[in-house]
Amino acid sequence: MKLRNLHQQASSPKRVDSIVNAMSIRAPRAAHICARCLGRRHSRRSYATTSASTPAPPASGAAKLTTRRLISLHGEEAPKFLQGLVTNNVRTETQAGFYAAFLTAPGKVLNDVFVYPTLGSHWHKETNHDEQQGFLVEVDADQAELLLKHIKKHKLRAKFKLRLLEQGELDVWSVWKEDERWRAHGRAPQEDGVLGLTDCRAPGMGQRLLFPSTNNVVASTTLSEVDEAPLSAYTIRRYLRGVPEGQKEIPREESLPMNYNFDIMGGIDFKKGCYLGQELTIRTHHTGVVRRRILPVMLYPQNATPPESLEYETGPLTGEMVEEGTEIRRDDKRKRPTGKLTASVGNVGLGMCRLEQMSDLTVSSEGSSFSPDDRFIVQGQDSQELGVKAFVPDWVRGSIRGPRAQKRVE
Description:
This protein is of the alpha+beta class. The chain has helices at residues 2-9, 16-26, 35-44, 78-83, 122-127, 144-155, 217-223, 231-241, 278-287, 355-358, 394-397, and strands at residues 61-64, 68-74, 98-103, 109-117, 134-140, 161-164, 171-176, 195-198, 207-211, 228-229, 292-301, 327-330, 337-345, 348-354, 376-379, 385-390. It has 2 domains: 61-241, 2-Layer Sandwich (Gyrase A, domain 2); 291-397, Elongation Factor Tu (Ef-tu), domain 3, CATH 2.40.30. The chain has a 6-stranded antiparallel barrel. It has a 5-stranded mixed β-sheet with strand order 8-9-7-1-10, with helices on both faces. The longest helix is centred in the middle third of the chain and has 12 residues, at 144-155. The chain starts with a helix and ends in a 13-residue tail after the last helix.
């Protein structure tokens, strides 16, 4: 009835846009988005930030990651197949999950993923009913269909079954606890048949656990130990640690894995055999200089004193919305670009930064030109300028190697 009334009210072409907008507000969101529509949607998206009133994340909590989906690979040749496509080592002797990436042939990132071996889990027994190896690949929800097509393209006659799990079949949760011990690049095995792993990308990222949406006693017990937090809490915690995730923050087919810290987040095994995109990745690691990396950044009013420490603030921020991809520039007469703001929530975010210009890190024989007195800016809404300061987390500083005789690789 509402739809018929809207058509009857459309007496002139000028009212079509407003009617369509009204309909789109009431329409339910589609479960899947095709690649063509996804491209149109991304081209229209203007801003990357959310309101500065987003609450701060709790010290301990659990967030349901609705931005992630799962692809199942099950069969005798699934381990060998994955070994030739992902950047990390697929070990058949362990049931521990790991972080990795799918690359293009030239070595650009297609997708950042977590891989969960399923053999021995309750889900595997109920779904596959055999003892053949299986894996669940966790990927950005908007990119799940594209990754599925990529896997199918390389599958050929490999003996394994492939499918995209239905939404709600298994939910992805991030669970973190205050003062939880961090194991650098560690892999947590399954416990009590529950699918999960240690999120080893940075200290304090906790665990990722997969639970059925309904009637799960283990999930209820585990999640009852901490308070449930919104997705924004998980996002803020990532930004404070300098951890990018998904293709909004790691642009598809545009990003080198080193620039997005895959090498220091445990996402690449440099001793494994050949895989798609390995050549440039290995050459950069052994002979190149990684001059640009993702770092956590903090926004502040331009006329204020630069912050001394990285902290999320819930108060208002002048010019609280900044267009994604906005260039970070040196605050001087020449306004030279030194990086780009990748994403932000309130006053914290991620920036692709030139290390020797925006931090005290030295990665080449040319040396750092950075000075503690240097100031940097981004242009916000209504042409307002905001101050930007990049921070180097301890886990990043301890993983960046010093300069040596190297060739420059951008």
